[in-house]
Amino acid sequence: MSDTPNLVLPYIAAAQAQKHVTHNEALSLIDGLLQLSIVSRGLNVPSGTAIDGNRFLIGAAPTAEWLNHPGQIALRMEGAWRFLIPRKGWQMWVEAENILLVFDGTNWVAPPAPAVLQNLSLLGVNATADATNKVSVNSSALLFNNIGNGVQIKLNKNASTDTASLLYQSNFSGRAEMGTTGDDGFHIKVSPDGATWKEAIAIDATSALVSVLANPATPLGIATKQYVDATAGCAPGGTAGQVQFKNGAAFGGFTLGGDATLNTTSGALTLNALANSKLAPMAAFSFKANATNTATSPQDLSVDQSLIALNAHGQIHARMLVMG
Description:
The protein is mainly β. It has helices at residues 19-33, 303-323, and strands at residues 37-38, 40-43, 55-58, 73-77, 80-84, 91-94, 99-103, 108-109, 123-125, 135-137, 163-170, 173-181, 186-190, 198-203, 210-212, 228-229, 243-247, 250-255, 261-264, 286-289, 299-302. It has two helices and 21 strands. The strands form six sheets. A five-stranded antiparallel beta sheet has the order 11-12-13-14-15, with no helix packed on it. Strands 1-6-7-8 form a four-stranded mixed beta sheet, with no helix packed on it. Strands 2-3-4-5 form a four-stranded mixed beta sheet, covered by helices on one side.
């Protein structure tokens, strides 16, 4: 055997004259092969500016001094070209492209990705990660596909008072956020500038009651402002089955169906809040009044009952005049 099996380096033969020639040849080849870094790849014509030590990956249709050496590595050595035939498993750095390639026996390809990556401190995909954004991705889309059934995206926070949310930004300034922000309820809020935030919807984590916080008095406002359907054990101001409302810091509730029963901790019906058409039907030829001597609910009085009540009122008034 005159050459080594892998790098094809020449052996020094027994009793060989000028052994230094063979030895120096082997050293030159080792120098060209180890830590293989080529200037560029794909050239078919030798570079006129090449110096000793430069290496090139020859293209598929070489000419001139590289003729008949397609796909080989051209090594400039002592003013001449030496040619190295790639072997499977060789690795090569391409200086012009800043990439690492591996020879698979036929082509130079990118190294295979590792099967397992664990405990990475930072990961950037077409982007640069940092201490805050330890995973950073620049992409027009992201796909999370299932591997047989469903798929979940999990955001886990440390404590109830922390935040686990999706933040939507414009030019890296927050515009909308949804998630468990500050407690375990679900919140949706928006911002026009990334500094001032307004909450739109809140869902209580215990009761699942939904609070819509938009103002109905403004254009396109949702038709309620903290109005919820009360259930047993709900917030103050309402009882089971009532529609509950909030007025400032006070809560109240009322029941729908038949007469509307007002139950509130503050205030009363506003002036002209009920039209005549909204009152219960009255008996024919009757008046609505109180014909008793004590405070009580209004009654539908017939004409005769009304006359008796008016007559009683007149007698009382007359006696008061006499006494005066």
